[in-house]
Amino acid sequence: MLKTLKSVALCAFLAGATALPAQAADVVLKLAHEAPETAIKGRTAKMLAELVDKYTNGSVKVDVFPGGQLVPTVEEIRAAARGQVDIIAPYTSYYSSIDSLWDIFYQPMLFKSPQQAIDVFSGEIGQSLLSKLDSRGLKGLAIWHDGPVYAFTRGEPATAPDVLKGMKVRVAPSKPLEALLQKSGAAPISMPATEVYLALQQGVVNGVVTTPTYAAPARWGEVLTTMTRGALWGVGGYGLAMNKRSWERLSPEQQAGVTKAVAEATKWNQSQTLENIKNSEKALADGGMKIVDLTPAQIAAWTELAKTVWATQSDEIKAMVAKIQK
């Protein structure tokens, strides 16, 4: 009888043990970004969270907050430096406020293709920019790719600089692109991405300089009519960075797991880039957007104007421009 009771008790204990919740993570990190979950950044961030859980054996959990839930885009870098959030992935142009060399990605008409941009992101230039974030209280982790930056309008396509004359064009903070717009006679308007749809709808702005890979999932095609393709105004990307103190709190094993997760998520992001651009452009066209390809003569005219912007850059950026052109 006693033996039977012991067996019943043991079975009950084991049954209860299997019903226990999974062990809580030792560290929980908050990753904040402004993009929709369906955008390439949203999908890459979700994958990163899953991989961090996998490669740290559940000891580190990344909670992802998309759509600007925690902090506005313009506050992300400061919030991460203060430790208000742990991980951020703002548009690379936002880093120009703390290091003007990040303007390299927005030198108009410099890059010839998205693949060239991927190579620069992951190469010497990209790694150098990430390493310099250390002095700002941030651990630079990677640069994720978004897509080519084009001119979008409500009306006539931007086939020539004078088309934009008198227009109000939203652009992410970027001195080179703002300069190009001003040289075209347009008024550059800076505002968070989460406010752009309503601004277009209400006529606060009537053009946008952005990527098709952001415009499509953000549904900006509903309030824009044309995209001008052929000359890259820049290359969109996201600088993935982590609060330095949050990084240092991780054990060496956890840091290794996070590093592995970042590398794998970044590789996936890059592998999806070209297909994502193609799908995004198709989605915009299917929604009624007119996509206009520039002629060689039109590209040359835009490039000549862009060169006047390059000429005003710092010696360091000019050296980087020359390196990319080789």
Describe this structure in words.
It is a single chain. With 326 residues, this protein is an alpha/beta fold. The chain has a single domain (25-325), classed as D-Maltodextrin-Binding Protein, domain 2 (3-Layer(aba) Sandwich), CATH 3.40.190.170. The protein has helices at 2-18, 40-55, 76-82, 114-122, 124-131, 175-183, 196-202, 212-215, 244-249, 252-286, 296-310, 315-325, and strands at 27-32, 60-65, 87-88, 138-153, 168-171, 187-189, 207-210, 226-229, 234-243, 290-293. Strands 1, 2, 3, 4, 5, 6, 7, 8, 9 and 10 form a 10-stranded mixed sheet that branches. The longest helix is centred in the C-terminal third of the chain and has 35 residues, at 252-286. The chain is globular and about 60 Å long. Keywords: Signal, Transport. One of its GO terms (biological process) is transmembrane transport. It comes from Aquabacter spiritensis. Residues 1-24 form the signal peptide.
Write the layout of secondary structure elements.
Layout: H1 2-18, E1 27-32, H2 40-55, E2 60-65, H3 76-82, E3 87-88, H4 114-122, H5 124-131, E4 138-153, E5 168-171, H6 175-183, E6 187-189, H7 196-202, E7 207-210, H8 212-215, E8 226-229, E9 234-243, H9 244-249, H10 252-286, E10 290-293, H11 296-310, H12 315-325
Parallel strand pairs: 1-2, 1-3, 5-6, 5-7, 8-10
Antiparallel strand pairs: 3-9, 4-7, 4-8, 4-9
Helix pairs in contact: 2-10, 6-11
